[in-house]
Write a structure and sequence with these properties.
By secondary structure, this protein is of the alpha/beta class. The chain has a five-stranded parallel beta sheet. It has a single domain (about 30-150), classed as HAD superfamily/HAD-like (Rossmann fold). The chain contains four helices and five strands, in the order βαβαβαβαβ.
């Protein structure tokens, strides 16, 4: 089994737009790039887990989400911060799905798909009530990241 860094996207890796859909809006935080590189060097898989309720709210399509994500991953890769997989939840909070963070469904699916040992994995996000709570429910170590806006 492998260990993984589960990292949030909007507000953690990329400046939260909000409802980011246009690749022109990609503004990556350098400290997030450093975190991804550091965990990769330590042998962690890098897995983005992200709530994307803008899809089911009708703010953008699955295709627009994929286009934004593809541009983000390309830019991260260019900076030496390669991501192994991305899991997203398109549901609104009122839909009650298990994959929407702080629910654990995205991480549990990634763990099954990628043979991940959750006990040796780690979560990084920008919100304790979402990313931190998800990590607590899973019993995974986590870190909340607060960005210096000048670090963009």
């Amino acid at each position: 089994m492998r260990k993984a860094l589960f990292i949030d996207r909007d507000g953690t890796i990329n400046h939260d737009c909000p409802y980011c859909k246009n690749p022109k809006d990609i503004v990556i935080y350098e400290d997030a790039v450093d975190i991804i590189r550091d965990f990769r060097k330590k042998g962690f898989l890098i897995v983005i887990v992200t709530n994307q309720s803008g899809i089911n709210r009708g703010y953008f399509t699955e295709s627009e989400y994929e286009k934004f994500n593809s541009a983000l991953l390309k830019e991260l890769d260019r900076r030496g911060a390669t991501v192994d997989a991305v899991y997203h939840c398109p549901h609104r909070p009122d839909e009650g799905c298990l994959c929407r963070k702080p629910g654990t469904g995205l991480v549990l699916q990634a763990a099954r798909d990628l043979n991940i040992d959750l006990d040796s994995s780690f979560v990084v996000g920008d919100r304790d009530d979402v990313d931190g709570e998800m990590a607590r429910r899973l019993g995974i170590k986590y870190m909340i990241i607060r960005h210096d806006e000048s670090a963009r």
